[in-house]
Structures are given as structure tokens and as C-alpha cells.
Amino acid sequence: MRVKNHPILGEDICEEFVEITVDGKKMKAKKGEMIAAVLMANGIKIHRYTAKEHKPRGVFCGIGQCTDCVMTVNGQANVRTCITPVEDGMVVETQEGYGRKKP
Predict the structure, then answer these.
(1) Which of 15, 17, 48, 80 has the most CB within a 10 Å radius?
(2) For the chain, how big is the Rg over CA atoms in Å?
(3) Which helix (H) or strand (E) holds 17?
(4) In angstroms, rounded to a whole number, what is the distance separating the alpha carbons of residues 96 and 102?
């Protein structure tokens, strides 16, 4: 689900798409939209699992202040998906705990 007509932002007229990969699955994304918005539009609510109790987390604040929406993006752990725009060819992975450090 995507918001196509917003009372403040107006009508969504974006017609340019890019392709990203989320946990091995290819997805179309509107150019410039945030990773979290793409996930929501595709029914994905879980972005990571906590380190100690392996509890699912997803978008909470939606403005980059908390860390509930962090995922591993292009091999980099702890990327806040609610404020990170998609790029063509981007690889996004559900994060386990604190994520793996890039070698």
C-alpha cells in the first residue's frame, strides 16, 4: 500500500522505478522513496530481530530518531531504513541483533 494522494504533500506523480533486493527477493521501488516505505508497500513489517531476546522490530518513529527500523543495507549494518532512500541495485537484509561488521 502506498499513499497516492496526501493532504499536505499532494499527489504522488512519480513514475520512475528502481529495483532493490530484500532478503533475496527482487522488488520494484519508486525512485527516491525511503526503504521502509518500499517494505511497507510490499507487506514487510519486520526489519530486524533484537540481540538478546530475538524479538521482531520494525518502523516505530519513522523519522530516524529510534533504531527499531535498522537493517543491513549493501553490507552495512544498522542503517535506518525510514530515512534512507532507495538506490537501484540496493541489497537490503533483515538484521539479526547488532548486525555483522563489514570486513
Answers:
(1) 48
(2) 14
(3) strand 17-22
(4) 14
